[in-house]
Design a protein that fits this description.
five-stranded mixed β-sheet, YaeB-like fold, alpha+beta
């Protein structure tokens, strides 16, 4: 059974920016399709079926042990899973400064519900 998932404020901002850029660059159809892909991947994470990796192993050994990521298109969805829910911490472009952005996530506000 899938766990409920929620977005941090940073994840909401990132998703809004991704939607705006995709709409302006590729049009409504592609923006809708990519939005569906991102939501489906969040649902996969919550269901435990998304292939993911620990950020600590690949990005920085000082990151929290439970910070993980999975790929969706040109983005990485960064998340933390606890016993009751999944917190989508941020959505980062594959060509961004991943170590720098992930290091900044350690203090992310996790209070925003989805």
């Amino acid at each position: 059974m899938a766990k409920p998932w929620r977005l941090t404020r940073q994840a909401e901002v990132s998703l809004t920016n991704i939607a705006s850029w995709t709409l302006e660059t590729f049009g409504r159809r592609q923006a809708s399709a990519y939005e569906e892909d991102l939501i489906a991947r969040c649902n996969d994470i919550a269901a435990g079926t998304a292939v993911s990796q620990g950020c600590r192993q690949l990005v920085d050994p000082d990151l929290p042990e439970d910070l993980r990521f999975t790929r969706c298109g040109q983005h990485f969805i960064v998340f933390i899973e606890d016993t009751d829910s999944v917190i989508i911490v941020d959505v980062l472009h594959a060509r961004s400064d991943l170590p720098g952005k992930m290091a900044a996530l350690t203090g992310a506000d996790l209070s925003r519900e989805h």
